[in-house]
Design a protein that fits this description.
The complex is a heterotrimer of chains A (1041), B (216) and C (450).
Chain A lengths: L11 H10 L4 H13 L1 H10 L4 H5 L4 H16 L10 E2 L15 E9 L2 E10 L2 E7 L8 E3 L20 E3 L3 H11 L8 E2 L2 E2 L2 H12 L7 E5 L5 H13 L4 E4 L6 H11 L4 E4 L4 E7 L10 H12 L13 E6 L4 H5 L2 E4 L2 H14 L20 H12 L9 E6 L5 H13 L7 E4 L9 H13 L5 E5 L3 H4 L6 H6 L3 E6 L11 E4 L8 E4 L5 E4 L12 H8 L7 H12 L5 H11 L16 H15 L8 E7 L12 H4 L8 E2 L4 E3 L1 H7 L5 E7 L2 E9 L7 E6 L28 E13 L3 E2 L14 E3 H6 L29 E6 L8 H9 L7 H5 L8 E7 L6 E7 L9 H4 L5 E3 L5 E3 L9 H5 L6 E2 L6 H5 L1 H6 L12 E2 L5 H13 L12 H5 L5 E5 L6 H4 L8 E2 L11 E4 L1 E3 L6
Chain B lengths: L7 H28 L2 H4 L13 H8 L3 H4 L14 H8 L10 H9 L5 E2 L12 H6 L4 H5 L16 H9 L26 H7 L14
Helix pairs in contact in B: 5-6
Chain C lengths: L18 H10 L5 H27 L14 H25 L6 H24 L26 H34 L3 H11 L6 H34 L11 H27 L8 H32 L2 H12 L3 H13 L7 H5 L1 H28 L14 H24 L5 H14 L1
The chains are: A alpha/beta (1041), B mainly alpha (216), C mainly alpha (450).
Chain lengths: 1041, 216, 450
């Protein structure tokens, strides 16, 4: 088999086997696995399913067997052409579960807590194995994509148990990658006491005496940010049962500054919920609201809807306008109509200045009596303030909005709240609710206090539910030292990480898709988290862990969660309500109401004065400042072992597998640095070596470092990748710090970057213009000229399409470069991860990539993002050159790639002007062979490609086929929006539209040709006639600037 | 000068030179034949099964409908293999002590599935959907042959791509009325009023040879 | 020099030994010179290296080379084109010059043809091993498959497949037919029974009767006629592999003639590279005379000028067409990452060959030998520029990349050179490297003229 492309078989066997494994737990599980291992079925099963892995699953005993298998498979590889098929088995159920139809996927609604709030998910499950994550369109955090607003069909059939689904919600990279984490072979699979494997029972017996009648003295629970009502209630109950126990939430990336800002402004730690649907003028104070954090998907949707110039009303176009100031470049800043790169202190100055200009009673920044701030042109400030004051561009219902990034100190948040109040935005573009998290405290302070207690020996038992404080606690707290003083340390964690390594007990944590729980969305909406698969290993959820502390070890998380809501729920009959809640993935009327607020301006003034006194003249010392940010792809490090995320090119830097010290071109020049040269960053009496990376748009004398890299105790993927910068980070200044030393070293560290060249070289690749230009001539904007020439002739006869004629339209104004489509595509199409070296060699496999081109001046450029899937050219250069006709033109216009026919001449890739074709230079999918769990991950509807074959975007042809079959079985044709490609489904801004070009009313048709004056074909002059076309990128700069 | 070769060499060389051509041709012909022989395609070869299940007896003599066991055939890509439960529906009562059925009972009691040998095994890169073929009017017997006459199961068709293409290029001769799909011995003569050409239009049956129809 | 060479009547004192004696004695004279063992041994080691690298290639995949996206074709295709080009000289010399009655060809056509065969053998290797899944190469052969699939006849690679196949076949026939009378005379001259049988077998009972000669002349001329179009067709088709593509630097109408000229250029360079050492090692200066070298040098100069025209034309058209991509391609060649290679290309292929205008240069074997080597390198660089430098910067700056050859790239290349030389050493050891009977005719003809 090894040399043939293979599609993963349907999991009948797996299900059957799984059912045997399940229901066993603890010690018995292990025993039964051994039993199984000896049973002939299990032998057969393994060797059938995972030749080569059988051995290592069965343990060292049969290493010889392993070698035999390897030899066998190698031999097979050779005589492939003239081989007789090996016998295969079908293993049906013994008793088949009722709703399950082998071969048909099912969808279940659940949710994923991320960054202090829940995202709603729909998870696709094949034969009881989750394979693909989509957003839940009914969930507030994941705006509907795909067919949502087409002829209103398929509403709540979306969720649980529904057959094919064509209505999805947007989803971000982390949600998409969650399914890979589930099957990660490096996940912790056993309870450990110290280094030795142990059992739950042993843990419980060890636990009891420590809890007996000491009403919780010395008991501390350290959790991540908790949004689960049930867990909160449990912890509440725990602190009642053990009055002297304490619960401390900590995440290295949290909303503390925002909450403290609110506390300052309103006296309560409220959270601001932005509504960009009505925001005409937006000022972002260093907030990456479009692509970072749990609200990003909704923000991105609302923001782009407000600035999308629909083809329909192109004659009276309206767009919102975004001013952004940033301490490090982010996609949000790059999408802004006006952007300034400022160092951290200057951002505060600007906020004060804006407040002052708006006539609020704040003292003008002292060092800028003339109103001139360093780095901020006066005209810029004037235009901004002017716009903020008379925002009503689109008559009446619009509003202005000032948003502050979580990195900014509380004072900036407070000022933002004050300015919004001043502009009358409250209730229009922003509302305030209780925080989504159960305990809105200053987590840095809370952790500091806990560490204090630990150091003083007041903590006798520390139970950590998730989190990885040993790795990511602020350096100044010296958490690890303090931890050593705790006599009993327990860590519940999905991987055996840095913290587990220093604990007495490590408990494997059940994956999100393996256990029951619940979580609140940003707006408070509750979702029930339901499992899609029995725990693959011996994992348990947080609820069970807390329950065991409560002496209810026998309760399952299902019972706990259900019981909690049974108490909460009043009104109609519970079971029906419960089933509906599970089905829809959201609990009706659970969103939190808006709070009435009154602003305490006095407090803000005091805070301002104290800030002023501490910061006067701080800005002008020559030393560098440092900016800490969660990594765009692996966040705070928790996703570090996720290959999809590691290989995902980070926006703007386009780096993979590594973090770097981001520097502005000027600063790099001053320090005499070039890319990949290692620098020594010294701060807070710690120093870290990082490769330098020059990033246009980075403020001068500011070095940005991303958290989460440099893991030491993680899986094979995470360990050793990048450098750990947490040692530089203190609890006083978790996001910015001044007085940082950056020294050049002779060393170099190679970085794997997927795009080396970021200039368009004067080529018309990303076409764009301003709203002004569009208004000037809506039907033929001048920036679109030259792009619409006469179509040239073709040497070959034209293709005829009597049925469907698929096509795609991508709106460059809408794309925010969030990378959601890239991971979604990887998950849907079984795209392998190739590793850092291969990426560095230019062999990454992504079927869709997000190209990015800088324009404008070097020190403050703007970037355009251009998602690039296969163009499915009408006259595809790849088709005629393949000697074996492995790539061909379908009767529906698809440019098909037939892996099993491909011999790998690579001529097609050479001849593709868009370079979207990807080649399996090595056996990239070998790890699927090696790790059975990854075998479960594969999408059974897509062939897994073998070494030496070409592959590329197929427009998700498996989804088209499914839709076609479903439609024809009902003797109808496919409805518009019924086929949703993976990238389209994930896209939060509906930048990607897909459909039938033969249908004059389809949404995609309306975005093309004469319907849309902004429509253009990339490299159209080559006469490839791509089916994927783009809408020009529009911006709305202030004419006064 | 002495002779190096015997005079017979002349004939020998001529024969071998001309013979070479024929030998080559023969070799090609043989290869061609082998590639299509049951040895390679395994069509008509009975497969060893854990239980000697007789389709002739169940489908033919007793006349159990195909869908009684292959339940998903109309709804899903896979026709579905009956769970042991299905066998036990009857065999809890009938032949409940027969040694031949021991594996079935064992499976049912010990809750371990029966591993049947796959008879119709497409390559992993070929995708086939039962439900749509039925819907377009392709009967079971069209591909699986007279299963009701097979004591032990074998593969009727070669399942080679050429065989699929024959029908995909010209489906018309293979169509039958939707109410005759599970009728094993149906022939066009049985329903003279049946008009394949009309059905092509009614059910949107068309020649479909896009690669992505089967390869994704 | 081995002591046996003393027995050889040398050019200094021709003595009364016939042409046949002298040429055949090289093969039949007992023992083998030491340098032969040395040379063969070295090239044999390189062949082992080739086997090793191909073995590793099949085990790991194309990934062991430097290829990537955008540079999908690397050394494999560069070497392929280079070797095919070299092959050309043989056909040109034997066929075209035969039809043109250029009698000076006589003394070089035999090993020129042999060289062609061996070069084509090396060339043929690459299209096969550069496949991602070489074990499915037969998908390219049009035969009634059980898949009901046929190859894509629109693809230049398809045309290539046939072009190279035909070329190899015809070259082999031409060479073999030419050998028959000589094989016969070798048979007759050899004393050992075994040797007689072997040569006799391949001589196919040649007796040199008038009838034999008449048939022979017809057949040989016919083959010459057949082979002649190949000189043009093969490399034209190879050039189409690129010209059909849309990549700037590939998509050019000048490619076919320019490739053929380039092929002849490199072919003659290689003939010289081989002829000059051989003639001195075997003391054949009076058969392969300085006039021969002079003539070949002239052909080389002409071909070189056509190639130069090609280069200039490429640049001119890129500028004149006003196509931004074409022009960017040229600028990238001149000033981009691989500018050094491009400069080297001009030096080797355009500037240095201009020395050939001087008679002194053309007639001094040593200089000519060095010059030929330089041109061989230059022609390899040309293919490198065309294949790799065109690919690494194409249309979208976002997908630009660069190509770095790995150890295995070089190993495979060196390996094929080894294969080529090994075959050549065997050839000079086992077969008359100069056509005995044609030489005889030649001498008679000259005698008659005198």
């Amino acid at each position: 088999m090894t040399n043939e492309p293979m599609a993963p078989r349907e999991g009948n066997e797996l299900v059957a086997l799984a059912r045997r494994l399940h229901g066993h737990r603890g010690r018995r599980y292990w025993r039964s696995l051994e039993e199984l291992a000896d049973s002939p079925q299990f032998h057969d099963y393994l060797q059938r399913e995972f030749p080569g892995q059988a051995a290592s699953l069965l343990g060292d005993v049969s290493r010889r067997r392993f070698l035999q298998l390897m030899a066998a498979s190698l031999a097979l590889a050779g005589l492939n052409g003239c081989r007789r098929q090996p016998a295969e088995s079908i293993v049906p159920y013994v008793r088949q579960p009722e709703p399950l139809v082998p071969g048909e996927p099912r969808y279940y609604a659940t949710a994923m807590p991320h960054d202090g709030a829940a995202m709603g998910l729909l998870v696709e499950s094949h034969m009881a194995r989750p394979t693909k994550v989509e957003g839940n369109p009914q969930h507030p955090a994941s705006p509907a994509t795909g067919a949502s607003n087409s002829s209103g069909q398929g509403d709540s059939t979306a969720a649980t148990g529904g057959g094919r689904v064509s209505e999805f919600g947007a989803s971000n990279t982390f949600a998409q990658a969650a399914v890979l984490a589930l099957y990660d072979p490096d996940r912790s699979q056993a309870i450990r006491r110290g280094r030795r494997i142990s059992t739950w029972d042993a843990f419980l017996t060890d636990l009891q005496p420590r809890l007996q009648g000491r009403d919780g003295r010395g008991l501390r629970i350290l959790t991540e940010t908790v949004t689960s009502p049930t867990l909160a209630a449990q912890l509440q109950a725990l602190t009642e049962k053990h009055p002297r126990a304490k619960w401390v939430p900590f995440d290295p990336v949290n909303h503390s500054h925002a909450r403290e800002g609110a506390r300052l402004a309103f006296g309560r730690p409220l959270q601001a919920i932005y509504d960009f649907r009505r925001a005409d003028i937006v000022l972002s104070l260093d907030d990456d609201f479009l692509t970072s954090g749990s609200g990003a998907l909704r923000h991105a949707r609302q923001f782009t809807e407000r600035r999308r110039v629909a083809a329909a009303d192109v004659n009276r176009p309206e767009m919102n306008r975004l001013y952004a100031v940033e301490t490090t470049p982010t996609p949000t800043g790059m999408k802004a109509d006006h952007r300034l790169a400022l160092d951290p202190t200057a951002v505060v100055q600007l906020a004060i200045a804006v407040a002052a200009r708006l006539g609020m009673n704040v003292p003008e920044p002292s060092d800028s009596s003339a109103g001139a701030l360093d780095g901020v042109p006066p005209s810029w400030l004037d235009a901004l303030v002017d716009d903020l004051q008379n925002y009503r561009l689109s008559g009446g219902e619009g509003g202005a909005l000032v948003v502050a990034g979580r990195w900014q100190p509380p004072i900036v948040h407070a000022l933002a709240h004050a300015i919004n109040e001043q502009l009358g935005s409250v209730g229009v573009t922003v509302r305030y609710t209780q925080a989504a998290e159960a305990q809105p405290v200053d987590q840095f302070a809370a952790l500091a206090q806990l560490v204090e207690e630990m150091r003083d020996g007041d903590v006798e038992m520390l139970v950590m539910l998730g989190g990885n404080p040993v790795f990511n606690a602020p350096a100044d707290l010296k958490f690890t030292e303090a931890l050593e003083k705790v006599p009993c340390r327990v860590h519940l964690s999905s991987e055996y990480d840095e913290t587990s390594n220093r604990c007495h007990w490590h408990l494997p944590r059940a994956h999100l898709f393996e256990s029951w729980s619940d979580a609140r969305a940003e707006d408070g909406t509750v979702s029930i988290i339901q499992p899609l698969i029995e725990p693959l290993y011996d994992g348990r959820g947080d609820h069970e862990a807390v329950a065991s502390l409560l002496g209810e070890a026998n309760k399952t998380s299902k019972e706990i969660v259900e019981a909690h809501w049974r108490n909460q729920h009043q009104g109609d009959e519970f079971n029906a309500w419960w089933r509906r809640t599970l089905h829809d993935g959201v609990m009706t009327e659970s969103a939190r109401p808006a709070e009435n607020t009154e602003l305490d301006f006095g407090a803000i003034r005091e805070a301002l004065d104290s800030w002023r006194s501490s910061h006067d003249g701080a800005g002008d010392d020559a030393s560098m400042q440092i900016v800490f940010r969660p990594d765009p792809t692996i966040w705070d490090g928790r996703f570090a072992n996720n290959g999809w995320l590691q290989e995902l090119p980070k926006p703007l830097s386009k780096l993979t597998w590594d973090n770097a010290a981001l520097l502005s071109p000027n600063t790099a020049e001053r320090l005499g640095l070039e890319n990949e040269q290692v620098v020594l960053v010294r701060h807070a009496d710690a120093e870290v070596e990082l490769p330098a990376w020059i990033l246009p748009g980075q403020p001068d004398n500011v070095v940005t470092v991303h958290l989460g890299y440099g893991r030491t105790h993680a899986g094979r993927i995470a360990t050793g990748a990048g450098s750990n910068v947490y040692p530089l980070r203190t609890s006083q200044s978790p996001w910015f710090a001044a007085g940082v030393e950056v020294r050049k070293t002779p060393k170099r560290r190679a970085l794997a970057c997927t795009q080396h060249h970021h200039l368009m070289e004067g080529r018309r690749l990303v076409v764009g213009g301003t709203l002004e230009q569009l208004r000037a001539s809506p039907s033929h904007p001048e920036f679109m000229e030259v792009l619409h020439g006469e179509p040239e002739e073709s040497f070959y006869p034209p293709h005829e399409y009597d049925g469907y004629k698929w096509g795609m339209a991508i709106d460059l104004s809408a794309c925010v470069g969030c990378n959601g489509c890239v991971v979604a595509c990887q998950a849907e199409n079984n795209i392998p991860v190739v590793g850092k070296e291969e990426v560095a060699r230019g062999r990454e496999m992504h079927w869709i990539r997000v190209d990015q081109y800088f324009s404008g001046e070097r020190d403050n450029p703007t970037a355009e993002f251009q998602p690039l899937p296969c163009m499915h050219c009408e006259l595809a250069p790849c088709e005629p050159v393949c000697p074996v006709a492995a790539t061909s033109h379908s009767s529906e216009g698809l440019n098909e790639m037939t892996y099993n026919r491909c011999v790998g001449t690579r001529y097609c890739a050479n001849n593709c002007p868009y370079k979207v074709r990807r080649f399996n230079y090595l056996d990239y999918s070998s790890d699927i062979q090696q790790h059975p769990s990854l075998h479960l991950l594969q999408n059974p509807d897509v062939t897994v490609r073998s070494r030496g074959v070409m592959e590329k975007c197929t427009y998700c042809v498996q989804r088209i086929s499914a839709a076609r079959i479903a439609a024809e079985k009902q003797d109808r044709s496919i409805r518009d929006g019924e086929v949703v490609t993976a990238c389209q489904a994930a896209c939060p801004t509906r930048a990607i539209e897909f459909g039938d070009l033969n249908d004059p009313n389809s949404r995609v048709t309306r975005l093309k040709g004469e319907h849309n004056p902004l429509d253009y074909a990339l490299l159209g002059e080559l006469n490839t006639r791509p089916r994927t076309t783009y809408s020009a990128a529009l911006r709305n700069p202030n004419p006064k600037l | 000068m002495p002779q190096i070769f015997h005079p017979s060499m002349n004939t020998l060389s001529r024969v071998s030179i001309f013979g070479a051509g024929f030998v080559l041709a023969a070799a090609v012909a043989v290869a061609y034949a082998i590639a299509r022989s049951p040895y390679v395609t395994e069509s008509g070869v009975v497969r060893e099964q854990p239980v000697p299940f007789s389709h002739r007896h169940h489908a033919g003599e007793i006349g159990i409908d195909c869908r009684y066991c292959h339940t998903n055939v109309e709804t899903s890509s896979s026709a579905g293999m009956p769970p042991t439960k299905t066998c036990m529906n009857c065999h809890a009562e009938l032949w409940k002590d027969s040694p031949l059925l021991a594996p079935v009972r064992e499976s049912f009691e010990s809750d371990t599935p029966i591993a049947w040998t796959r008879v119709h095994d497409l390559p992993d890169f070929a995708y086939f959907n039962h439900s749509i073929h039925l819907h377009k009017g392709i009967g079971c017997a069209t591909c699986h042959g007279r299963v009701d006459d097979m004591p032990l199961m074998w593969r009727e068709a070669t399942l080679q791509m050429q065989w699929c293409l024959d029908c995909h290029r010209n489906p018309r001769p293979h169509l039958r009325p939707r109410d005759k799909l599970f009728d094993m011995d149906w022939t066009p003569e049985d329903t003279p009023e049946f008009d394949a050409a009309k059905q092509m239009i009614d059910y949107h049956v068309r020649s479909n040879t896009d690669c992505s129809t089967c390869h994704r | 020099m081995s002591s046996h060479s003393a027995e050889l009547p040398t050019s200094e004192n021709p003595g009364d030994a016939t042409v046949g004696d002298r040429i055949s004695s090289i093969v039949l004279s007992r023992g083998t010179p030491l340098w032969w063992f040395a040379g063969f041994g070295l090239s044999f080691l390189l062949v082992m290296l080739l086997l090793a690298s191909v073995g590793y290639l099949f085990a790991r995949g194309i990934g062991i080379w430097g290829n990537n996206i955008p540079v999908g074709w690397g050394f494999a295709i560069v070497n392929f084109v280079w070797w095919v080009g070299i092959g050309h000289a043989g056909t040109l010399i034997s066929a075209v010059l035969l039809l043109c009655r250029q009698h000076w060809r006589t003394s070089i056509n035999r090993f020129a043809e042999a060289m062609t065969l061996f070069a084509v053998a090396c060339a043929g290797l690459f299209p096969l091993i550069h496949l991602g899944r070489p074990h499915y190469f037969y998908f390219m052969i049009p035969y009634p498959a059980t898949t009901g699939m046929w190859p894509q006849f629109r693809s230049p690679l398809m045309w290539d497949f046939f072009a190279i196949g035909t070329y190899a076949l015809v070259s082999l026939l031409f060479w073999y037919v030419g050998l028959i009378p000589d094989l016969a005379s070798m048979r007759d001259r050899s004393r050992k029974r075994f040797v007689q049988v072997v040569y006799g077998f391949f001589a196919m009972g040649w007796r040199g009767s008038a009838r034999h000669w008449r048939r022979y002349e017809q057949a040989y001329l016919l083959l010459g006629g057949l082979a002649t179009p190949l000189v043009v067709s093969v490399h034209s088709v190879v050039s189409l592999d690129f010209a059909v593509g849309i990549i700037p630097g590939w998509h050019t109408t000048v490619f076919p003639p320019y490739f053929v000229a380039g092929a002849v250029f490199s072919g003659f360079a290689m003939v010289l590279t081989l002829a000059i050492p051989l003639r001195s090692l075997f003391r054949l200066r009076d058969y392969v005379t300085d006039d021969h070298l002079d003539n070949m040098a002239k052909v080389m100069l002409t071909a070189g000028l056509i190639v130069a025209y090609g280069y200039v034309m490429e640049i001119f058209m890129a500028w004149y067409s006003g196509d931004e991509f074409e022009w960017a391609m040229i600028l990238n060649r001149m000033f981009g990452e691989y500018r050094a290679w491009y400069a080297a290309l001009w030096i080797c292929n355009i500037f240095v060959p201009q020395l050939l205008w001087f008679r002194a240069v053309r007639r001094s074997p040593a200089v000519l030998f060095v010059l030929a080597l330089v041109i061989n390198v230059g022609m390899w660089l040309e293919r490198f520029i065309i294949v790799i430098v065109s690919l690494h910067h194409d249309f979208l700056p976002s997908s630009w990349g660069s190509f770095t050859p790995t150890f295995w790239d070089w190993a495979t290349f060196a390996g094929t050179i080894g294969l080529f030389l090994a075959l050549l050493f065997l050839f000079v050891r086992l077969l008359p490297m100069i056509s005995i009977f044609e030489m005889q005719e030649q001498l008679d003809r000259e005698a008659n003229h005198a």
